[in-house]
Amino acid sequence: MSGRRAATAPPGPGSPTAPGEPRARGSVALVGAGPGEASLITMRGLDLLRRADVVVIDRLAPHELLEHCPPGTEVIDVSKRPGHHLVPQDGIDALLVERARGGARVVRLKGGDPFVLGRGGEEVQACREAGIDVEVVPGVTSAVAVPAAAGIPVTHRGLARGFSVVSAHEDLISTVPARRDHTLVLLMGVTHLARSVSILLGRGADPLTPAAVVESGLRPDQRVTTTILRCLTEVAASVGVAAPAVIVLGDVVTLGPLWKHRVITGS
Description:
Helix content is about 20%, strand content about 25%. By secondary structure, the protein is of the alpha/beta class. It starts with a strand and ends in an 18-residue tail after the last strand.
């Protein structure tokens, strides 16, 4: 990151202008960087990075993409970790507006897709309400790409005609189909895994439903653990599953090459 100015929290006001000079109107672009592998970013997203004055980056966005930024680009890390938000969401919203009002071309670099459980909609709304020009650049979502990296399609003829993507932080898991022929993808699900499994089993989900946990998807340390729903909590604890991870439930898991290495506990 040589030649760039890095900050871990919002520094002072936006770029100054000379006295009496009208302040240029900046812009904000929410760019989905994709999951894990830096080359999955779109050409549009890369072009915006190459012209950015300010980059506000998430923990899950590939940080090696910052090498494409011009010298002098201000980089602000607003990483969120379980139980710890370096900058709260309203602070991020205000930061985007502030820098754009100062005339900066701001790139909000987010892992996956900005509009898939990434609070991108809130950031767009904040910019629009402030009269800031804002663009959304879609990204490859981890909900589909990470299972694919493990050889698991989210739909497959004869096995699953649809899929649901939910955050295990929410109670939405109690409303989605609990069938083996409807793939369920859980994002941000490690912390509340035991509760999610309990809810699904309590709703009548088949205890033998194939399950996979894909940690650090599309990264060099990617790890895939396969089991069945009734064993999922115990197996995940025994192998030390850690975020970031995508959890996949449904018969499509059997198509992955690591299904043959599934771990089954108890009788």
